[in-house]
């Protein structure tokens, strides 16, 4: 499903400043789009609005049109039609538990059971989803006794099991160790290849650069930059927005101020590119 | 029931039960087992308060094994009604106002619980109240009067503090969260 | 979740059976003629715990019940009205002692099945049973989510207490000092719980709860508990006993 924002503004209740301003953006199925920006630039809000959670749960005022597969997610009448088709993962895994499950299996089965899947279908799909994120061995564990990283994988599996058409990811890998993080980004790429629209809001530039097909840089709730992740992230215009860069990119820019020779040519973003720039090979 | 109520009501029921641990840690002779009921009433209205209070009472009865506490269900309804009336009238705009509303609630609740506990148990309810009752009785009061005096003085203190605590919470809510709950804004007269 | 007893007759039973039986005992304790009825009920209840495979429930029962027995005899027996009778070194009011015996037996009769039912309660089984009967999802969710939130909040009380103590909060002292200590202990607890509930709403919404909220929609029970003939006869027997006791009470 395609996610379309058309002239969307959103203001949280009690706030004088809109979190999104006249945002127009089309996020295609089959792509990983990376929403990047300073804290408060509007990435998290864009995800909440795309999922309909804002304004339905948060309150506030939305203007303009939002369409997910042609339906307005902010319309209470479409909630049942969109249930199970939009996945949402945030940075705090313990807050995304159902509150009902006594085992990881039941936790992952929570949404399919709500959608009325048959028992046979649930028994087949749940272990597959857990295995894809490397959490198959956790199936019989108690969710509240897992570590943050294990729990985050369970939460991702709980969405994966639905084969959602849209993924809304808000810092989905922050609780994961580096190995699991790479695996999670790989999984989100696979999901895009399968045909899902994957929207990833993160400050983890190192991971997102690998995973994303497109970057959209937000500033004050509007699009500031839009294009190829490597090209946009390396640009001075993006750097001046103050959202940061990859570890290597930030290091290079810090050194550049003192070593004018480094300022010639484009800024490398990865270790490989930096080595190539320094050694010429 | 919408998803937000579905998330908030269990939290407030659990709060009612968990406050028991706070009271126990501090060794206070009160219960504070209606803080969640009062809070949910100010946020979502008296209906949610009645549901939260009723389920809390049922759960406390189950967890403590004392099913007879179910007989005090009408008190939870009373608390939700009084808290709802207080919230409507801006009764949580200062801690002092909230304590006054709480004292009113405690007075009404104390009378009601004295009637219930006398009718059903002839004076034996929670250990704290019972000990107070024995004290009043040894001072020469009749059994009925001793039970009434014990339960009203406990309830005045208990509900006064509970309402005051809820006012402290509502006044401390970050602006963004408070504005998601129109009820909280009205109860504290924020921005008025 | 609190770790429960090992698999027993109670954990195997349909989740509605122990709850129905407990409710029936509550009614019977007040309907049967006192003090004989409640006393017999209490003896049966205590004997049933080991028979049902959870004799461990008796320890917490006695912890709850014994202080109340003592208080009952103090308030009703020692401080009760004349005539008095001497039992050993004690002088007890006859009517008061009878009343204390009846109340104590009622209490015991009710506490035992409640604790047995609670120790055998499994949220997931309960929700499955409710889903199978076509209960509204929100009702089952409220019960089960609450039971899961309580231990978490209680744990958080300990964490906040330790944190505030290390910053010099005094949790002992005069009653005024202790009442003052309530605010630093409860404010972080309640504000944190409210923020969590807000996030929980988003999580539920994204996990298909909107689909079960539609009238007529049914959740799939994952592992529906078997409702055996024994379960059904226990439940009907409990209902019948209450009806008979109530009828006897009316016509007597």
- Low-pLDDT residue spans of chain C: 1-5
Average of per-residue pLDDT values of chain A: 92
Shape of chain C: flat
Taking the sheet with the most strands of chain C, its summary is: 2 strands, antiparallel
Strand order of the largest sheet of chain C: 1-2
What is the string of SSEs of chain C from the N terminus onward? HHHHEEHHHHHH
The helix content of chain A, as a percent range, equals 25-40%
Describe this structure in words.
The complex is a heterotrimer of chains A (281), B (192) and C (252). The mean pLDDT of chain A is 92. Chain A starts with a strand and ends with a helix. Chain A has helices at 43-51, 53-56, 79-82, 104-114, 119-132, 148-160, 178-194, 205-211, 229-234, 236-240, 247-256, 271-279; strands at 3-11, 20-27, 32-36, 61-68, 86-89, 166-170, 197-201, 214-219, 222-227. Helix content of chain A is 39%, strand content 20%. Chain A is globular, with a radius of gyration of 20 Å. Chain B has helices at 3-26, 35-44, 46-64, 73-88, 95-121, 127-138, 143-172, 175-180, 182-188. The two termini of chain B are 30 Å apart. Chain C is mainly alpha-helical. Helices cover 72% and strands 3% of the residues of chain C. Chain C has helices at residues 9-12, 16-31, 36-51, 58-78, 94-119, 123-132, 137-166, 175-206, 209-212, 229-251, and strands at 84-87, 90-93. Residues 1-5 of chain C have low confidence and may be disordered. The chains are: A alpha/beta (281), B mainly alpha (192), C mainly alpha (252). At the B-C interface, α1, α3, α6 and α7 of B face α4, α5, α7 and α8 of C.
């Amino acid at each position: 499903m395609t996610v379309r924002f058309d002239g969307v503004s959103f203001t949280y209740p009690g706030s004088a400043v809109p979190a999104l301003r006249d945002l127009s953006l089309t996020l295609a199925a089959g792509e990983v789009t990376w929403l990047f920006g300073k804290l408060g630039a509007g990435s998290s809000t864009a995800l909440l609005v795309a999922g309909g959670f804002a304004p339905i749960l948060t309150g506030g005022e939305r203007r303009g049109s939002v369409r997910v597969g042609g339906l307005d997610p902010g319309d209470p009448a479409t909630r049942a039609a969109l249930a199970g088709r939009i996945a949402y993962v945030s940075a705090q895994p313990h807050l995304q538990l159902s509150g009902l499950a006594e085992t990881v299996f039941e936790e992952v089965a929570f949404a399919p059971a709500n959608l009325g899947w048959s028992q046979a279908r649930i028994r087949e799909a749940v272990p597959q989803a857990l295995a894809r994120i490397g959490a198959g061995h956790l199936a019989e564990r108690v969710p509240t006794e897992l570590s943050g990283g294990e729990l985050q994988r369970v939460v991702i599996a709980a969405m994966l099991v639905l084969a959602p058409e849209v993924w809304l990811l808000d810092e989905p890998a922050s609780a994961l160790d580096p190995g699991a993080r790479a695996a999670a980004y790989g999984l989100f790429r696979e999901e895009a290849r399968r045909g899902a629209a994957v929207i990833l809001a993160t400050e983890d530039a190192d991971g997102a650069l690998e995973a994303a097909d497109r970057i959209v840089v937000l500033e004050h709730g509007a699009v500031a930059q839009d294009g190829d992740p490597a090209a946009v992230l390396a640009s001075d215009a993006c750097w001046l927005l103050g959202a940061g860069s990859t570890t290597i990119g930030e290091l290079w820019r810090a050194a550049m101020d003192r070593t004018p020779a480094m300022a010639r040519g484009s800024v490398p973003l990865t270790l490989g590119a930096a080595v190539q720039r320094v050694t010429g090979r | 029931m919408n998803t937000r109520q579905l998330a908030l009501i269990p939290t407030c029921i659990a709060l009612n039960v968990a406050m028991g641990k706070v009271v126990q840690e501090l060794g206070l002779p009160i219960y504070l087992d209606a803080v969640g009921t009062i809070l949910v009433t100010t946020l979502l209205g008296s209906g949610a308060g009645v549901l939260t209070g009723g389920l809390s009472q049922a759960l406390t009865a189950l967890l403590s094994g004392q099913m007879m506490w179910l007989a005090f269900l009408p008190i939870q309804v009373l608390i939700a009604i009084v808290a709802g009336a207080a919230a409507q009238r801006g009764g949580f705009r200062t801690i002092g106002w909230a304590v006054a509303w709480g004292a009113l609630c405690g007075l009404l609740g104390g009378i009601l619980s004295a009637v219930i506990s006398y009718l059903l148990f002839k004076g034996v309810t929670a250990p704290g109240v019972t000990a107070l009752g024995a004290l009043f009785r040894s001072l020469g009061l009749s059994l009925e009067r001793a039970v009434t005096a014990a339960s009203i003085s406990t309830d005045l203190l208990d509900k006064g503090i509970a309402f005051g605590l809820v006012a402290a919470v509502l006044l401390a809510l970050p602006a963004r969260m408070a504005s998601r709950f129109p009820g909280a804004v009205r109860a504290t007269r924020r921005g008025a | 979740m609190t770790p429960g007893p090992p698999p027993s007759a109670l954990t195997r039973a349909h989740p509605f059976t122990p709850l129905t039986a407990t409710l029936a005992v509550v009614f019977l304790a007040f309907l049967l003629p006192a003090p004989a009825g409640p006393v017999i009920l209490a003896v049966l209840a205590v004997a049933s715990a080991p028979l049902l495979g959870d004799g461990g429930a008796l320890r917490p029962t006695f912890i709850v019940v014994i202080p109340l027995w003592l208080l009952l005899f103090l308030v009703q027996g020692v401080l009760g009205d004349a005539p008095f009778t001497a039992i050993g070194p004690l002088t007890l009011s006859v009517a008061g002692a009878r009343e204390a015996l009846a109340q104590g037996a009622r209490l015991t009769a009710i506490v035992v099945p409640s604790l047995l039912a609670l120790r055998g309660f499994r949220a997931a089984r309960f929700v499955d049973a409710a889903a199978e009967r076509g209960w509204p999802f929100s009702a089952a969710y409220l019960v089960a989510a609450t039971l899961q939130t309580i231990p978490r909040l209680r744990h958080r009380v300990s964490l906040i207490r330790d944190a505030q103590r290390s910053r010099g909060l005094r949790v002992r002292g005069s009653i005024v000092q202790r009442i003052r200590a309530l605010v630093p202990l409860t404010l972080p607890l309640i504000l944190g719980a409210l923020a969590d509930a807000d996030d929980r709403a988003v999580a539920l919404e994204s996990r298909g709860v909107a689909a079960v909220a539609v009238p007529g929609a049914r959740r799939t029970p994952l592992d529906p508990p078997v409702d055996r003939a024994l379960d059904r006869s226990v439940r009907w027997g409990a209902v019948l006993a209450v009806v008979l006791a109530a009828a006897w009470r009316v016509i007597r």
